[in-house]
Write a sequence for this structure.
DNA sequence: GACGGCCGTGTAATCGATTAACTACTGCGC
DNA sequence: GCGCAGTAGTTAATCGATTACACGGCCGTC
């Protein structure tokens, strides 16, 4: 910056003013400064600027698993929304581990992100408190924690799950195997509670960990126990269940029905296409980013609750259509 | 930091030494400082530290599309490798747009990443030159550019594609539709060249843009032109082709054969499972991160060329088995 | 013609760390 | 008792920006 100033025959203050679009500098001075910048290929140091202004124009996003298309879509939406407001997003991959999640959150705080978007790995409010104590704007996404005091953005699947349960009962299923998420996550618990409640005793629950392998294992157990329908509460576990079903040579929906929480672009291409509860991922990501930006600007955004929809496609059998 | 120093009755220099594990401070002093840090909940400001040390312990990664599982896997692998060396990764999503790619690269440079990993959207070496001119360590990943002067990490699919072509010819296919990538990307061109060369005149090529929609359109055109086999040069275009095939009620492999470049976890679950050329994504990501770290440490890593493998699964028909 | 106001720039303090150079103290040998 | 080496800790410069305040020139008014 000093070089630029010297080159243009002005002080660094003037260079800074030109850079930040202040009213002061003469058009002529401005021109000289811009020429010098161009000539020297100068680019301002964002670190120094942030240090001085205490604003990084950066949002932190800590998600549970980048390989899960659900979170990838959310990340993408958050990024789009943030960018359109001049913010940049730094993504942290917690890998469904509370420990790694904490590490990432701290790293992001150390780098002074202007706000943080978090998909908490567990119910534990400890980390959320830590962030709040630091006074950093925080919005929870997809999942919440016990006694959360910050805005939460998530999808409500109750209606869709209730409708799904009704279909299954109506189709005469007697044992519905539920491949549930971890009981220490809000989404894991809530979805399972609503769904088993609506099934009224027909449900048999096995908990997985939101990963493919656990889906296969849970499916195996449930099939062995005589389940006539399987419902996976997350798309990766759904993939695992599907693999197990195929591995055993069972046919959907003839031998067993299947439904999955979270849609995927390839679900409609299976034979039969998979019935799902589809979350509005893009909306969730955008809404979360908007809430966080509002919080950063001193407003108090409300919680956002979007609605997940039941998409019937055929994997439950004719009964559904 | 001043607060901590005051609290512990020492100077900021001493606090800094404790923080950085310097030899100087007495165990007793160290203890007092750590206690003060603990008590005040102090966390060092990474911006200030980086400004002073000119090292951010951060790698930039600019990929073409986060929603493409191929890149998501790479990102994941890069992150793992980087983290294990104490580095953090900032991901930028270029969305297959050269403009957005340039924006991201500049943003990352402004934030003074210690090194940059780039999956270039096009062949154009302009951006690569810009980065090199800035003296920032750079490694190209998956794709290269014309006259690249930096290390490149990629997968070689020639062997697999040649074998694939041989199978198709052997099975008696007369018109093979190739859904190619953009001709201004190295992967798009190379894969197509090798494959059509090996097919010796049986190939009909339509270019897509590495996205699902373009895959469907290309497939439609090729099917209309009487293709008996379709090969998509990227997994998203493969997904699009599959959708088009299903949409027309065609059966694989009876009516048409299909193979895709890039594997996906759900390809084996289709009926029939899809034959693919599988790239070693995790290896690629790790290798790229390692090369970049080597470059940062002043070494001169070689280009890395990994091998993609043909995985036969059934979507080419009995001929393949 | 002198004075007050306004405008474009420059000077210098500041953000929060790191670190070279210096100071103060301890203890040892002669 | 004195000097010297060695060690623990402090002072202050520095990284590259932003910005409050000061300064000097120009113009209009009485």
């Amino acid at each position: 910056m000093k070089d630029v100033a010297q080159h243009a025959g002005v002080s660094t203050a003037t260079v800074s003013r030109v850079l930040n679009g202040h009213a002061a500098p003469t058009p002529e001075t401005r021109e000289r400064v811009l020429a010098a910048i161009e000539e020297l290929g100068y680019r301002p140091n964002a670190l120094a600027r942030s240090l001085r202004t205490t604003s990084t124009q950066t949002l932190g996003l800590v998600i549970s698993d980048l390989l899960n298309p659900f979170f990838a879509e959310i990340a993408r939406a958050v990024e789009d929304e943030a960018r359109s407001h001049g913010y940049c997003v730094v993504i942290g991959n917690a890998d469904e581990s509370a420990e790694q999640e904490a590490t990432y959150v701290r790293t992001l705080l150390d780098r002074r992100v202007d706000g943080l978007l978090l998909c908490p790995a567990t119910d534990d409010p400890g980390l959320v408190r830590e962030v709040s104590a630091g006074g950093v704007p925080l919005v929870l996404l997809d999942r919440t924690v016990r006694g959360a005091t910050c805005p939460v953005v998530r999808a409500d699947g109750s209606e869709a799950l209730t409708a799904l349960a009704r279909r299954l009962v109506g189709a005469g299923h007697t044992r519905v195997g539920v491949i549930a998420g971890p009981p220490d996550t809000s989404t894991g618990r809530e979805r399972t509670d609503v769904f088993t409640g609506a099934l009224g005793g027909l449900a048999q629950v096995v908990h997985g960990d939101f990963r493919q392998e656990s889906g296969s294992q849970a499916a195996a157990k449930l099939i062995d126990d005589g389940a006539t329908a399987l419902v996976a509460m997350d798309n990766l576990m759904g993939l695992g269940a599907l693999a197990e079903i195929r591995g055993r040579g069972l046919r959907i929906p003839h031998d067993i029905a299947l439904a999955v929480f979270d849609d995927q672009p390839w679900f409609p291409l299976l034979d039969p296409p998979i019935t799902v509860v589809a979350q509005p991922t893009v909306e969730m990501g955008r809404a979360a980013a908007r809430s966080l930006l509002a919080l950063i600007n001193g407003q108090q955004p409300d919680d956002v609750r979007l609605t997940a929809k039941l998409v019937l496609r055929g994997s439950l059998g004719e009964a559904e259509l």
